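Supplementary Methods S3. Complex input for the NDP-bound model.
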Amino acid sequence: MTKLALLGATGSIGVQALEVVRGLAAQGERVEVKALAARSRVQLLERQAREFRPEAVALFDPTAAKDFRERTRDMSITVLEGMEGLCQAAAWDSADTTLNAVVGMVGLQPTLAAIGAGKRLALANKETLVAGGSLVTEAARQNGVEILPVDSEHSAIFQCLQGSPGRQAVKKLILTASGGPFFGWDAQRLAAATPEQALAHPTWDMGAKITIDCATMMNKGLEVIEAAWLFGLPAGQIDVVVHRESIVHSMVQFADNGVIAQMGTPDMRLPIQYALTWPRRIPSPAGELDLPALGKLTFYQPDREHFRCLDVCIDALKRGGLAPAAANGANEAAVELFLQGRISFLEIPRLVGEAAARQAAVPAATVEEVLEADRRARAFVRESI
Ligand code: NDP
Ligand code: MG
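Predicted complex, serialized as structure tokens:
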């Protein structure tokens, strides 16, 4: 039986994770939801709490927490709030597994709290590894905690590596990228791209922030950094290839040039479930792949000139230290401004590139230093518009 703490329960990943929990229960696989957390979406969280009966619910927003307490007076739930509440939920005593699916850097402290409490960590919140990769992986090593990737590319690589003789047998990781809604667009069209256009992803239905990240290819840049930390490989051993169909979720090329790919319909419920049932594989809600119906799969080089965020991230990874935290913080701020209609699409790569370049690549020795680099990068973005 899995005893789960689910952070980001009301988001795209969180809602699908609860679908997976229902599906597992229908097969006699018990998953008890011990804690739920979100920022402020009280109504959905209340419905989830009434269905899954957690011991604790955390809301980042204190006003929402107050509202939630009122609404659930008839239930015996510990209602937590703020960052402290998120961290308490992440480390909730009766849970053994924490699935972190909040969006953004705000997930860093809860991730560290879960690891510190010795929970098995299923990680969707990639920003955590991008900004604080050294702290997170070192804490996991010290506490003997397993990090199970939920991000589809990283789950794919993790699946391809099952049975691998070790890191020295791996020549490179090949991350696939859908290319997003603006694949093939030139600078002129990109300059006029609107949030509505950027939010229309061709193959995946996800939260707004990651959808914009896919349109800029920042998402793939973040994922290169995420892969470097999860699998302990340098930037030079991580390739990116555009694959429009999102059927091959990523690949591993081994020393003998044999390549193993993980394929499937684009459905996040498979990687979410695998993170919860690993190493076992059991029926999932993901549909079967129909290869003849697909006919062909295509692969292209990424367009690094028009989608600069990819190389900004790879460069930040190579420079190391706090550079990735700055790139990530600047991106979070820039995406927010783009969604508010306050900056143009091409301002995102420009601001992220400048913020990353301004950050000295000093080591990310403490959480405070990572948070400070993040704050500086956000302030730089807000001040430059
Ligand atoms: P969504 O925007 O759909 O959901 C975000 C979730 O995080 C919501 O539950 C939200 O709560 C919560 N949240 C946001 N801010 C805070 C905060 N300050 N404190 C507590 N909770 C907060 O995002 P996604 O589900 O799309 O993405 C989640 C993470 O998973 C991201 O890191 C993303 O990169 C990654 N990921 C997502 C994929 C997908 O298919 N969606 C695929 C691969 C990775 P509320 O609803 O109350 O605002
Ligand atoms: Mg991904």
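Residues 151-153, 223 surround magnesium ion (ligand 2) (CB under 6 Å). The two ends are 51 Å apart (CA to CA).
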